[in-house]
Input
Amino acid sequence: MQNAEIARLFDDLADLLEIQGANPFRVRAYRNASRTIGDMTESVAAIAVDPSRKLDDIPGIGADLAGKIKVIAATGELPQLKELQAQVPPGVVEMLRSPGLGPKKVASLFKELHIASLDMLKAAAVAGKIAELKGFGKKTQDSILKEIDRVSEAGKRYSIAQGRVEAESIVADLLKLKSVTQASVAGSCRRRRETVADLDVVVTSSDSAAAMDRLAANERVIEVLARGETKQRVRLKSGIELDLRVVPDESYGAAMQYFTGSKEHNIVIRRRAQERGLKVNEYGVFRGDEQVAGRTEADVYAAVGLPWIPPELRENRGEIERAEAGKLPELVELADIRGDLHMHTTATDGACSILEMAEAAKARGLKYIAITDHSKRVTMANGLDATRLRAHWKKIDKVRGQISGIEILCGVECDILEDATLDLPDDVLKEADWVLAVLHYGLKQPREKIMERLMTAIRCPWVDAIGHPTGRMVGAREGADIDFDPFLKACADHGTLVEINANPSRLDLDDVHAAAARDLGIPIVINTDAHSISNLDLMEYGVFQARRAGLEKKDVANTRTAAQLRKLLRRNR
Output
């Protein structure tokens, strides 16, 4: 099983135990185990079946958790979780998101009124049944009625691209106020997570009321949900909720650190502060009543004995230990990218010609591109067979003479077919400058078949990289069931590159597996998969993903010159 699957089982177990009133330390242990496993790059299931390894060598995994992991690895299930799921329907867990409903009250609603979903909760509140329940009352019932629709929407997550546009637009508008001196996006959006549940903005201002009035009047805002002296929560027309925090100048860095998170990262920062006789919160770093830091984030980190840590790394995945040891990576930057090796033209499903894509890429400072139109299996995109592809490459060759200052590689996005063969023969792939092999169809095939298909591509000497490896669509479609340990090892052994697809709807590889690829010495290539000129600007989202993985410039293949890239490819060795 994948680490994410095992992590989810422990998270689900913690939810159900919490509703049943289990020991909070026990619940916390399962949640910590879920986070630890989910953040690991090495397969926990593989460790579980390796007689030379011990699961309890993993920090936070004791004998009891190790035993449960072994059961999961062997059976794919957690018996204790199945027992609890038979007792508590999944809709009951969702009720924990409702304000004022902790585990005890949710348990009472389920046991006393047999409420097992948010819809049933709303119906009971409308009927006045909740007010009659011991320990609730009319106030709780009214609160549920007021918030239930918002809670139902709150489980939604939004693309980082959408969240970033919304938040940065609001920041730009707030900065138009003379009374606002600083304004920045915080939260998971600043950490560049693939999706965001809500947004956070921090400002410094001499007039907090004016900042809140400005936000309330913003054309993107549909409703003010709450307002205090220094905090305001609004709902945007898109459905995303946004928190505005107004702080004094001397607290700006502390607020940015605190509200950027992650929660797990901040817990360690607070612990380090306590060890030094300090207290850290959103207003600053304090020794007793004296503020000793807080104006900048760097000051906050310095107060707890650390250098400033880039937001993308703040997930408590070892970044604090690396920072303490002076070994933080120098993360890759957008400006480091010299080429884009995945894009489409009107030859298949792109909107622009070869020359138009090349000119647009050159205007963005790129030094080389690869035109990678689809192979014939993608019939809906008018995919190219061998004859049409060779004719297409001749057109690329002609365009090379029409533009200077940028190299154009003859490439193809070649499907790995459901029968574990490639969509084009070796003699055609051999003629290319660059070949991306991808999974587009049959993503629900069993793991064994998916791995057979991937291994076919990896072993082919004319396949340079595996593009968007899982084929997932973020929040919309699960990816193929890949066994990542042998997949990445095979890529390392055969010299096959792996792509981070920069399109925000893909971001495939994810950050955890990109870090695992880096650890095996596999060069990552960050590509836009552009189908239009504007799509070329998606490159930054791939860079964000690479930064979350801790990748440096040297870890990314297309930070090299075109000549250096060619030397990297096994077809040219």
